[in-house]
Design brief:
By secondary structure, the chain is mainly alpha-helical. It is built from 9 helices and 2 strands. Strands 1-2 form a two-stranded antiparallel sheet.
């Protein structure tokens, strides 16, 4: 859960500010956001979507719990994903969002289809925002599936979503502060690399290629 918290806090400063700045401005012009509490509801909707994804991925990890070899291979695959996202964060690899452009365009059309000015609309828009194709969210789902529990998977994503709120609330200020985004992006990349290393070693250990590493009663891999 610590990884989800750090990823949400640091990753959102470097990633969400750039990627979601246009979304914030789009919502800000929507009739539903002329009402009080609209932004609270949109973030609630977004976190609902994240938690739902975490529940699904956590349940998937739970189902794989009895298949040690398959889970070991998946750990290595997720480590590769984490390393790729870390590289994308610091500009060494293309952002995965570029591969999801058609889905993002469909998402934009779905957002514009909502014309209602009700608070329910704000919540539904938040849910749609939560399902926006996003490399950072895909990375955050790694600890969700690693939890091997639907409940803990949902909790991981709830923590991640809540941790992104501060930077999204300050998105208009951060959008014009490139230096304010640089150091969190680097730290988030470091967190993901460490997390990817742990996943890779866990997979190799499960396959018998390396030994498990324990520190007291705490198993690192």
């Amino acid at each position: 859960m610590l990884a989800s918290l750090l990823l949400g806090l640091l990753g959102s400063l470097g990633h969400c500010v750039g990627m979601c700045g246009a979304v914030v401005l789009l919502f800000d012009r929507h009739p539903a956001f002329q009402k009080k509490f609209a932004w609270a509801l949109v973030h609630a909707g977004r976190i609902t979507a994240y938690s739902t994804l975490g529940f699904i991925f956590g349940a998937f990890g739970q189902a794989l719990g009895s298949f040690d070899k398959l889970q070991a291979v998946l750990s290595i695959v997720f480590a590769v994903v984490a390393f790729y996202m870390a590289s994308a964060f610091i500009g060494l690899a293309p952002s995965p969002e570029l591969l999801l452009t058609p889905l993002t365009q469909r998402w934009g059309r779905a957002i514009r289809a909502f014309k209602s000015a009700s608070l329910l609309t704000a919540y539904l828009l938040g849910i749609l925002w939560g399902f926006l194709p996003c490399g950072l969210v895909l990375t955050a789902l790694v600890p969700a599936i690693a939890s091997k529990s639907a409940i803990y998977g949902a909790l991981n994503m709830l923590i991640f979503g809540a941790a992104t709120i501060p930077s999204l609330l300050a998105v208009k200020w951060f959008a014009n502060k490139s230096k304010a985004r640089a150091w969190p992006r680097a730290l988030a990349a470091l967190v993901m690399m460490l997390f990817g290393f742990q996943f890779a070693m866990r997979g190799f250990a499960s396959l018998g290629l390396v030994g498990h590493f324990m520190l007291g009663e705490l198993m690192f891999w």
